[in-house]
Amino acid sequence: MSVKLTASALAIAAVAATSAAARDQVQVAGSSTVLPYASIVAEAFGENFDFPTPVVESGGSSAGLKRFCQGVGTEHTDVANASRKIREKEIKACAENGVTEIIEVRIGYDGIVFASQYEGPAYNAFTQSDIFNALAPKVMVDGKLVDNPHKKWSDFNSDLPSEDILAFIPGTKHGTREVFEEKVVAAGCEATGAMEAMIAGGMSEDDAEDACLAVMSDGRAVDIDGDYTETLASIDANANGIGVFGLAFYENNTDKLKVATMAGVEPTTETISTGEYPVSRPLFFYVKKAHIGVIPGLKEYAEFFVADEIAGPDGPLAEYGLVSDPALVETQDAIADEKIMGGDS
Amino acid sequence: MTDASLPNGGAKSRHGSLTSVDARTKKRNTAEKRFRAYGVVAIATGILFLMVLLYAIITSGAGAFQQTFIKVPVYLDPAKLDKKGERNIDDIKKVSTFGYNPLIQNAVLKAVEDAGIETPLKKSKDMKALISASAAAQVRSSVIENPALIGQTVDFKFLASSRVDGYLKDRVKREDLARDKNIDAEHLDIVDGLMEAGVLKKTFNPAFIFGADASESRAEQAGIGVSMIGSFFMMLVVLFLALPIGVAASIYLEEFAPKNRWTDLIEVNISNLAAVPSIVFGILGLAVFIQFIHLPQSAPLVGGLVLTLMTLPTIIISTRASLKSVPPSIRDAALGVGASKMQSVFHHVLPLAAPGILTGTIIGLAQALGETAPLLLIGMVGYIASNAPDGIASGLLDPNSAMPAQIYEWAKRADPAYYERAWGGIIILLIFLVTMNTLAVFLRRRFERRW
């Protein structure tokens, strides 16, 4: 029995070795926000080219970049999707493993919207200050920095409904949380003058910036660690709750959700691409230059991803909810020239 | 002495007459009735929950097995598809699926006009919302397969878009359309008209059962077939590893091993392993198989190995139980006529225990088939299972998903049509599980011997 088992183990190892040596499809891993777009592109790529359909996996921006940076060779991924820019630390980790030439591709922008139950209270308009006033632990009342006394939205803005404050925000492991903190909470912190008051109160500027990002942990701000479906379910169950969603998700569920304007601007692909709508972020993918020419179809995949017919304003990605990048031509040129990050070439 | 310690002993007889029931007996009888009632209530509640569950699954999931199709004749314009007119396959391949879209939209517009439907949507681009994005690829691949079709008008059966399909399944309501940028009320008028004209039909959709997963913009195209193959390969690995290892281990422990501290320790550990949450095996698989041995991520082989670890204790425990249930007289008789210990086990005990072993194995497999938690950690979730494997090696090593992981994946996606597909997937998974469990019950009934 033991001899047979060893033999079968050897056979498995042999099969594994042969498959690792020959890989003919592009492998992609990373952000779950980019996943829908990448899978739409991979599908169309498989249909239009003789190359096999690329394999797309999710797992989060950080996990994707970590796998990407593990080394050069067919057993490592070729492309990392990310809903944020690659960090200095990650570039260093990449370089340590021999991944020195990375091509950065910005595919477009993703809008982040605030929405509530369609039949729920009239949350039609927010400003960053409203969100800050509702969720921050310390806010400005009558020119003084005090512990947040607000219980209802109407406590600080009479235009908002008199409902208990309840917000479902992305958990800390999500890239979306960063955008929410920087573009909404921190912006509200500055706009209400709370940041100035903190600095005046003896805090260093850096500390004040950090303190500005905090949200209360008394149950009014609920971290959602799952995906938008979970946020939607929470909104369904709580008529007075507001939730943070991606634009694409909202557009697919307009029968259940009502979107609110931010600082008077309604989130649409147009307002996001012009930069009028303030809460948006760029989406990226990163290509390992050393794999171009080794993995068949890798460069073609990258070029196809940002081609006008795919990532342009009328392409399937925009249709799904991506806000197309006005500077798409530059991106296309950069890929054609295989221009690497930080390099002069 | 004892008598003296009983006060009032025998002062009053406790026994009433046989014909009339005394208070204590009455009390005991009502207690029994009450207990029976509790039992009935418990079972009724169980059945009620089962009914509610089945009702929810069937009503939500049945729709996934039907899909809306549009049948239209498409004119394959040579001016668009083969500009040089040489029917050179390389020239034809240069026209991407985006070049085919106008032809299809024209064809649908023509069908709308032919059906005599009054609509303000007069441009062919307006028809885009009705048709699945998969249509262009469908036409393109049949043209590449047979370039002679160029210049002809060919009948095609396209998938309707998920919104049109949702409208026919009452998922998309007219009153919600004002806010939906994917489709307008005018489109639904066209859908009604095409329905009447017989161009648009809702029929059984085998692609849901046998097809591959699709991207998020094409819910109508997605199927569970490829992840079913993934599950199949995982079960293959589990069967070929867990059954021999499990049976060998149990035979040794039950028939040959000396009873000492070591075997006791092993036995306790096997029982404990059976109770370990499955996610623990997942993280073990991630650490050992992927990070240490460097097996490929998302591969059914790794999934199978992880599930093998999870299934082994189940198989060992049930195998040992069925070996134990073979009476010692069988072993004694075999040994008595001169068989060696091994002969007595393999010729007599094992065949008699086989039905029990098989039942245990099938139940273990069914459990492994429905398992999702360990697969989350080894990358079988969050992956688009769009490539069917070609051959056994690729089936084991190429990234794939598994049925429960696919269902979880669908439930997460934005388009509500995927939600319906998730329920549909649950129906298929349940059919598999019920079949396997029925098979196990059948085998037990058919072959089990009692002494």
From TrEMBL, chain A:
Gene3D superfamilies: Periplasmic binding protein-like II. Residues 1-22 form the signal peptide. Keywords: Signal. The keyword Ribosomal protein does not apply. The keyword Signal applies. Pfam families: PBP_like_2. Residues 16-309 form the PBP domain. It comes from the Bacteria. This is Phosphate ABC transporter substrate-binding protein (PhoT family).
TrEMBL record, chain B:
GO terms for molecular function: phosphate transmembrane transporter activity. The chain crosses the membrane at residues 35-58, 232-253, 273-293, 299-317, 349-370, 422-443. It is a multi-pass membrane protein. It is found in: Cell inner membrane; Cell membrane. Its main location: membrane. GO terms for biological process: phosphate ion transmembrane transport. It holds the Pfam family DUF3333. InterPro entries: DUF3333 (IPR024573), MetI-like (IPR000515), MetI-like_sf (IPR035906), Phosphate_PstA (IPR005672). Gene3D superfamilies: MetI-like. Residues 228-440 form the ABC transmembrane type-1 domain. Keywords: Cell membrane, Membrane, Transmembrane, Transmembrane helix, Transport. Residues 1-25 are annotated as: Disordered. Belongs to the binding-protein-dependent transport system permease family. CysTW subfamily. This is Phosphate transport system permease protein PstA.
